[in-house]
Amino acid sequence: MSIRFTTRARGRLSAWPVAIVLAFGLVACSGGGGNDDDKPEASTAASKSSDSRPDAQEGDSAETLAELKGPSGLFLKITKSERDAGGFVTISGDLKNDGEKTVNVPAQLSGNETEIIRNGSSLGGATLVDPKGKKRYYVLRDTDGRPLTTTNFPALKAGESLPVFMQFPAPPADTSEVTLQLPMFTTGTIEISG
């Protein structure tokens, strides 16, 4: 009886791979042939986004909200500032080395709070100032004290840029303009969307 069971089990098990292959074949073909066309486009899109960084920057020039100049040729271009339903503002952009030499991102950008410094290099020293409400907002932190910003920066080669973000508590809904301050950088006024 155990031999019959084994034979039946083998028969059933050997049918599974065939059924699985057929099922995957049907799923792959069910898109009307669109999946084969999508794959080259996806890889083309991926290569365009990674290979055409200058084009992306040229396209973002209309979306530049603020430009902050820093030390050693560092340059921070803010391209997005959104108010989220969760009660915070996310600011994002690109940190670029406009200089001619490789630059290490200064440790001062992390700020001077021990809890933030302990978690490595970051943009934890950034603040938003609401001139209308006369309040300053500091970078948010998670439950472990890590700042909600880009962290652990590599050295930036000449001309190289790095996407960055920072999250802050949201100012009141009637506040649409804030000033972004980052240690060692010029300040910039940003309009919050959303």
UniProtKB/TrEMBL annotation:
Superkingdom of origin: Bacteria
Region feature Disordered, mapped onto this chain: 33-63
Name this protein carries in UniProt: Secreted protein
Organism: Streptomyces salinarius
Record lineage: Bacteria, Bacillati, Actinomycetota, Actinomycetes, Kitasatosporales
